[in-house]
Amino acid sequence: MRSTALFILLCLATALPSAAYAKKPKPETPDDKLNCKQISGRMQVRILQLRGFDNQKQVSNFSRNIQAGMAATFGNQSHGVDPQGQHDADIQTLQASNQRLVALGCKSYDLQKELNETDPHETPAPTVPAPKKKKTPASASPPAPAAAKPVP
Fold first, then answer.
1. What CA–CA distance (Å, rounded) separates 102 from 109?
2. pLDDT tens by residue, 8-48
3. 126: domain range?
């Protein structure tokens, strides 16, 4: 009797989804809806992840080919097959985010300086000042109103 009850409990425990899997993840905010602080925060994390990429020991082509073959055979993700391509895509994403900061009128990053930083405890910070907005002269006269047409 105990073994049957234990077996049933084990089956139920493995068959029922846990609460962690039942929760729906919060949808990610689109990049064009982010404010300066959010973009800067994402860029800080990405810069910290990318620092020292050139100094890291890279895997051999043989092991990359084995991984790609296994991914094709067993249907695994191809994450990590092309680290240089992923690094280049990350750099392009950083540059696009930096341009977005400039377009929003926020302080932006000196990406070369930040990526070449060797101290792992140095937090990246936006150092390039925000572009100055052009002021319209207050002494300029307003446009003349349109002449009123006589009503017949």
1. 9
2. 766 666 665 555 555 676 778 777 888 999 999 999 999 98
3. 40-130
